[in-house]
């Protein structure tokens, strides 16, 4: 069936006050900026100290390993987004390729990641600002993030897109400035600019680099979020797969370059607290100017990431609402005026308020569980897609069809084993609740979950 780039007014309305599809307005540069904003590249400096300690000073090497590992899963996402150009990401792919029941559970697990990540982003941003302005409590900053971010996302994806492009440009500029100061400091002290130590660590230890890579992989969470914009993207079958790979490659490249330069200058600075290592380095090599710019960059990065994360979470909830998995009257609606899922956006905003009562350690302990479950099942779905394509008589390269997704699944399963106990307990409990909900929806598995709504069919029927 043909894919129309611009739904008609009737389609957008979907009946009085009940829109069912998005406008296709985004092109490759916008989708890529969305993905990079979600990753918040500058946060690589925020976590530098922890990964440097784990990898024996081989942070760049750990990020290189993590990037290669994530590219395996990105390849699976790319193939599936071309085959199934619909919003919903892993939830949609697993329902289409593997099983409606498993797809529901993947979507349920993904909500733990997608819906709570904006809260964590706003909480971290508030902690940075509170450290600089202690007189203003965290809840005030969190409320400010929520109001501004939600407003931009409600007004429309194009407005959020323009804001993301500006914020991302500032963020990358701050990273470039940090790298330039680092290189200057290294050269000024007569140290070598070309070295393998940031990649190998000292002493070289494969297990240490792998442990660093397991932590570094968390920085890539969100590269798959661009798939939630499928129904708002022009020529989605070509654009989304390219955006997925570019997000992982460009984001990973920024991570590697930034940590390489930071590891070079690291020995020149006595770091007192590994949690704020990059901030201490910034202050040592650039004084008050660079430390202030660095703080501004972190805040901008959190803000841009919050816009992307909230937009992505609301699209997932809309897709599940449109299918009737979540209450359809509430979640499966788009605003006739802005063509955005306002109800879902407001739910994510409401969840963000919970951040006023949590600390960063507690809130970040469980969001990775849902992401890694989704990554694993996306790779399984890619293998299922390969089998379907072969059954249709299509030629599929065994390397990309079977080997790459199988390796991707194994790598992600390893990352799941690296999660701490609270993450596994919260994630497991959330998944158990999802199973109970599924039992209720299917009357004890005696009937299938609600059928998926194919957006392309909706568009054609309304045209």
From TrEMBL:
One Gene Ontology term of the molecular function aspect: transmembrane transporter activity
Keyword Cell membrane part of the UniProt annotation: yes
Transmembrane regions: 31-51, 63-81, 102-128, 140-159, 166-187, 207-227, 239-261, 281-308, 342-360, 366-387, 399-417, 423-442
Entry keyword annotation includes Iron-sulfur: no
Pfam family for this entry, one: AA_permease_2
Tree of life domain: Bacteria
Primary location recorded for the protein, binned into one broad class: membrane
A GO CC term assigned to this protein in UniProt: plasma membrane
Keywords: Cell membrane, Membrane, Transmembrane, Transmembrane helix
Membrane association type: Multi-pass membrane protein
Coiled coil: none
Localization of this protein: Cell membrane
UniProt protein name: Amino acid permease. Membran protein
Lineage: Bacteria, Bacillati, Actinomycetota, Actinomycetes, Propionibacteriales
């Amino acid at each position: 069936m043909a894919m129309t780039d611009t739904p008609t007014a009737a389609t957008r309305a979907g009946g009085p006050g009940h829109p069912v599809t998005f406008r296709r307005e985004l092109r490759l540069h916008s989708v890529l900026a969305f993905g990079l904003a979600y990753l918040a590249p500058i946060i690589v400096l925020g976590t530098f100290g922890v990964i440097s300690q784990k990898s024996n000073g081989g942070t760049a090497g750990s990020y290189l390993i993590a990037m290669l590992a994530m590219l395996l899963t990105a390849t699976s996402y790319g193939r599936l987004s071309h085959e199934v150009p619909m919003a919903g990401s892993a939830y949609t792919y697993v329902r289409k390729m593997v099983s409606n029941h498993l797809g529901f559970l993947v979507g349920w697990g993904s909500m733990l990641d997608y819906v709570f990540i904006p809260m964590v982003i706003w909480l971290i941003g508030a902690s940075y600002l509170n450290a600089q302005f202690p007189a203003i409590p965290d809840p005030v900053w969190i409320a400010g993030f929520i109001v501004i971010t939600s407003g931009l996302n409600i007004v429309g994806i194009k407005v959020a897109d323009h804001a993301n492009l500006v914020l991302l440009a500032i963020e990358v500029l701050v990273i470039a400035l940090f790298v330039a100061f680092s290189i200057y400091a290294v050269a000024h002290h007569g140290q070598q600019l070309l070295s393998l130590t940031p990649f190998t660590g000292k002493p070289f230890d494969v297990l240490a680099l792998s442990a660093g890579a397991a932590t570094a992989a968390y920085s890539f969470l969100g590269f798959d979020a661009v798939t939630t914009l499928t129904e708002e993207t022009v020529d989605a079958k070509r654009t989304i797969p390219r955006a997925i790979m570019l997000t992982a490659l460009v984001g990973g490249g920024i991570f590697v370059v930034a940590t390489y330069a930071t590891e070079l200058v690291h020995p020149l600075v006595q770091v007192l607290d590994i949690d704020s290592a990059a901030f201490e380095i910034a202050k040592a090599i650039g004084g008050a100017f660079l430390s202030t710019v660095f703080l501004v960059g972190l805040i901008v990065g959190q803000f841009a990431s919050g816009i992307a994360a909230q937009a992505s979470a609301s699209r997932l909830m809309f897709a599940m609402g449109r299918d009737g998995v979540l209450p359809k009257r509430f979640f499966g609606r788009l605003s006739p005026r802005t063509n955005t899922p306002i109800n879902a956006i407001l739910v994510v905003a409401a969840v963000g308020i919970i951040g006023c009562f949590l600390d960063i350690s507690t809130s970040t302990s469980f969001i990775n569980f849902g992401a890694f479950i989704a990554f694993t099942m996306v790779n399984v779905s890619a293998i299922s897609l390969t089998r379907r394509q072969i059954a249709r008589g299509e030629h599929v390269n065994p390397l990309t069809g079977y080997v790459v997704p199988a390796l991707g699944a194994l790598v992600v399963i390893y990352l799941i084993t690296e999660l701490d106990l609270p993450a596994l307990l919260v994630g497991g409990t959330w998944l158990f609740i999802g199973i109970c909900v599924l039992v209720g929806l299917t009357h004890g598995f005696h009937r299938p979950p609600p059928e998926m709504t194919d957006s392309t069919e909706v568009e054609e029927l309304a045209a």
